[in-house]
Amino acid sequence: MTVGIVNPAARGGWLGRRWAHLQPAIEAHLGPVDWRHTTAERGARALAEALAPTAPDRVFVVGGDGTVSQVVDGLIAGGAPPQTAVGILPGGTGGDFRRTLGLPADPIGAAARLVGAVPRPLDVIEAAFGGQRRACVNLASTGINAHVDRRVNASKKRLGGRLSFFWATVRAELAYTPITLDLQIDDGPTTRHTVASVLVCNGQYAGGGMHFAPGARLDDGHLEVLLLAPRGLPAGVTLLRALYAGTQDALPGVQRWRGRQVRLTPVEGEALLDIDGEVPGAAPVVFTVAPGRLRALWPVG
């Protein structure tokens, strides 16, 4: 069974306005799809959770990174089997998860690339915080990223992905107060840090093309952990440029590790969480990788 979940509100409503044109063009590549449309905030999660017990073969997601994350979270909450394959047809603002998969930015182009796509194991990040459990697929963090996403999500996103995130990051940098937290990776020692952000990466990109984790892989059973120390302007702008180029490790105040579980416990300051572009709560939090929990459709060639 092939099902599609569409978020018409993605990219400030662009997807909904264009859907009558997009649907037949997508189906010309993928064949008939049983489309389900969201009608409420976080509606993609509810649709995916209800769908999960039917064990669909393929679930196409048309929307942004937040919609993809909701679908993955809903499929896992509903008990979808690991054989369920998720296909990404980008239609949101940032479009970062599709970069790791090597897909183009438009949903029709992505559909063309997914003809004959091969399902491959997809690791998932499971986050436990505040009595909640949430699954995500690309990147989770605590620190300034949550403040950036709040600004982007509150905007009309008319500047597009990269500029929306760039200006939101500059504005958040000016207002942000660094936090102090304890960090533990796997069974290693607990270390204390004052940070701008700690990012836990399954995918490589976030923030409209920032290349946070060039070495991250979606199917290796590990997470990349990136720590960014506080810095003001203009050093923050220098870091932003390095992040877009993926060269941030050459800068002072940047540390990186790999692991299967990451525990973050705030000591001073509010450590808001950013989970695939949404801000659902705050640390303390434990991030754990679930190797091969689902499948992803990767383009051929």
C-alpha geometry: globular
Give the DSSP E fraction (strand runs of 2 or more residues).
25-35%
Number of distinct beta strands? 15
Domain count: 2
CATH topology of the largest domain: Tumour Suppressor Smad4
Tell me roughly what share of residues is in helical segments. Answer: 25-40%
Assign the CATH class of the largest domain.
Mainly Beta
Oligomer: single chain
Q: Give a short account of the largest sheet.
A: 10 strands, mixed
Describe the structure.
With 301 residues, the protein is of the alpha+beta class. The protein has 2 domains: 2-123 and 294-298, Rossmann fold (3-Layer(aba) Sandwich), CATH 3.40.50; 135-289, Tumour Suppressor Smad4, CATH 2.60.200. It is built from 8 helices and 15 strands. The protein has helices at residues 14-30, 43-51, 65-77, 97-101, 107-113, 144-154, 161-175, 235-245; strands at residues 2-6, 34-37, 58-63, 85-90, 118-129, 132-136, 139-143, 179-185, 191-195, 197-201, 223-228, 254-259, 261-268, 273-275, 285-298. Strands 1, 2, 3, 4, 5, 6, 8, 9, 13 and 15 form a 10-stranded mixed β-sheet that branches. It has a 5-stranded antiparallel β-sheet with strand order 12-11-10-7-14. α1 links the parallel β1 (2-6) and β2 (34-37). The longest helix is centred in the N-terminal third of the chain and has 17 residues, at 14-30. The chain is globular. The two termini are 25 Å apart. The mean pLDDT is 91.
